[in-house]
Task: structure prediction
Amino acid sequence: MSPLIIAGPCAVESQEQVSSIAKKLKELNVDMLRGGAFKPRTSADSFQGLGKEGLDILEQAKSETGLSIVTEIMGIEEIEMVAKTADLLQIGSRNMQNFDLLKKIAQRASDTPILLKRGLAATKKELMGALTYLEAYGHKAEVMICERGIRTFANGYYDRFTLDTSLIASLKKDPTFKHKIIVDPSHPAGRADLVEDLLYAGIAAGADGAMIEVKLDKKAKPLCDANQAITIKQLESMLKKAKEIYTIVNS
Ligand code: PEP
Ligand code: MN
Result:
């Protein structure tokens, strides 16, 4: 019994970076490779992602390893282009309520599975509302939900966002809710040393899988979300325990 594991860098930076990470992830039996080519950054002077070049890099890593790709779609103009590369199309937290984007993705990428990330200040009702757009506008493939932490008064003292494990637990208890729930422990942690604990907490609450940001090794200096990136070596040891917790929860 294993949770679905998605791992990879926050942002695609170079072929060497992505291919070397992908090769190691494949050895760890990770299910999918993540990496943002189009990045939603808080500030315009931060690295914005490589765009189309980043998608080509992901395709190359896919052909080298066979790993499926998870990557974010930000703009209506890029739907077809990103959906061609993505095996799982990520709709980021900041776009969860971009209703026009949701409608157009549903219509124009109806056969591509979606990973819908909860808005960073979205209620459960708003998250469910976002799902109705995908359904109503003709999306046919699987949609997974991702809990990635919400804004609370605690943020900034010891975490970046507050991981809402109660949302995961409550959705798992709802017999009418048919979607997979993925926990993202990296963005709520905001720092590498908390990722492990939040991963276990999410799986213990019932998550079906996890999406985790990684870097190749200690020397690597990611251009995006560097503080929360764990090394592949750290990932390896935490995946063993995550699997054990998942087995306990699901047996
Ligand atoms: C990400 O997964 O890299 C990302 C930008 O996530 P979020 O939309 O949850 O901030
Ligand atoms: Mn990130």
Summary: The mean pLDDT is 98. DSSP finds nine helices and nine strands in the chain. Residues 232-249 form the longest helix (18 residues). The first strand starts at residue 4 and ends at 8.
